[in-house]
UniProtKB/TrEMBL annotation:
Residues 4-148 form the Thil AANH domain. This is Thiamine biosynthesis protein. Keywords: ATP-binding, Nucleotide-binding. SUPFAM superfamilies: Adenine nucleotide alpha hydrolases-like. The keyword Zinc does not apply. Pfam families: NFACT-R_2, ThiI. Transmembrane segments: none annotated. It comes from the Bacteria. Residues 229-331 form the NFACT protein RNA binding domain. One of its GO terms (molecular function) is CCA tRNA nucleotidyltransferase activity. InterPro entries: NFACT-R_2, Rossmann-like_a/b/a_fold, ThiI_AANH.
Length: 333
């Protein structure tokens, strides 16, 4: 039996691409690559996710964590970044390269994506689609069922593994043909087009770019921490992150590097902080002042609080007043 491996984002186009090919009696396995920038939370609930996708769309999906190679690519994507810190072309190249590598594992004869020519300004132009194929080593083995008829026949069509006549000729930015096809497949509960990738979100992307500019090696949990909480670059190089609620405080405790300080007020409700690169005493004082500032408000007479710094079994305390907003405004990341 012929098997195809699909790059699965979870968006409507990737769902439809899988269904169009599966309609021809081909076994389609969807691979959803995840990194902290997209889809990472699914790793904690892989089975539930797979069941949901099967139930809603009739598609079998597996997750693959691509974090480490993605971190390396993001530092210097050969085709550059989009509007924010999104390396869309190199992202697709990397995903396809990995998918190609997985073909042997899943006995797949060809690859599928839900790309539609002309749909996205940067990554889905005709010439860009060719570059993505070429640089991922997937020329000829990548079938784009939603726009196949606008492209040269691929290996799967030439070899008669799929019937080209039953593939589609979508192009451009309009969503109507996709919505109509979804209707034909009886798909109603599908995700609306929306981001889903933090590298395209300007605030998050700026913070990630800042991290890449400051640290020569990327730590997975640092990236996960970058995506929530309040962040400050302290005047002497320290990086302080404060939780904004109990859930974020708990996550910071869970994800912090053992070499970093955990910073908090042992006697007063307030944020959990993680302090990275705390080499300078002024940064410790600033971190303490910020923890008190974002702690539970106290009347002026008792505004100062004890702040504990804990790292690798060692503890020290500082007594600090809340830091004035004017002082730390420019430190926000
Ligand atoms: S938006 Fe994000 S996930 Fe999508 S191609 Fe661009 S970088 Fe990759």
């Amino acid at each position: 039996m012929t098997c195809a491996l699909a790059l699965f984002s979870g968006g409507l186009d990737s769902i439809l691409a899988c269904r169009v090919v599966a309609e021809q009696g081909i076994t389609v396995l969807a691979v959803k690559f995840v990194t902290p920038f997209f889809g990472y939370e699914l790793l904690a609930e892989e089975q539930e996710y797979a069941e949901k996708v099967r139930e809603l769309y009739g598609i079998d999906v597996v997750l693959h964590d691509l974090s480490e190679p993605y971190f390396a690519m993001l530092r210097n994507p050969p085709h550059g970044y989009g509007k924010n810190f999104n390396p869309c072309i190199d992202c697709k190249i990397l995903l396809l390269r990995e998918a190609k590598r997985l073909m042997a594992k899943y006995s797949a004869s060809f690859l599928i994506t839900g790309e539609v020519i002309g749909q996205r300004p940067m990554s889905q132009r005709r010439d860009t689609l060719r570059v993505i194929e070429r640089d991922s080593g997937c020329t000829g083995i990548l079938l784009r069922p939603l726009c196949a008829k606008t492209q040269e026949p691929t290996f799967a069509e030439r070899e008669g593994l799929v019937d080209r006549e039953r593939l589609l000729d979508f192009s451009g930015r309009g969503r109507q043909p996709q919505m109509q096809l979804a209707e034909e497949f009886g798909l109603r509960d599908y995700p609306r087009p929306a981001g889903g990738c933090v590298l395209t979100e300007s605030d998050q992307a700026k913070r990630i770019a800042w991290y890449y500019g400051h640290y020569p090696t990327v730590r997975l949990n640092d990236i996960r921490i970058l995506l929530f909480g309040r962040h400050f670059q302290l005047p002497h190089g320290g990086w302080l992150v404060l939780g904004r609620d109990a859930a974020e405080n708990a996550r910071l405790e869970e994800l912090h590097d053992p070499g970093d300080y955990l910073v908090y007020m042992p006697e007063r409700p307030g944020p959990m902080g993680v302090l990275h690169d705390a080499g300078h005493p002024d940064d410790l004082a600033a971190a303490a002042g910020l923890v008190v500032r974002f702690g539970k408000k106290m009347d002026a007479a008792s505004a100062a609080a004890t702040v504990l710094f804990a790292c690798a079994g060692e503890e020290r305390t500082l007594v600090a007043e809340p830091l004035a907003d004017l002082i730390f405004q420019e430190w926000s990341l």
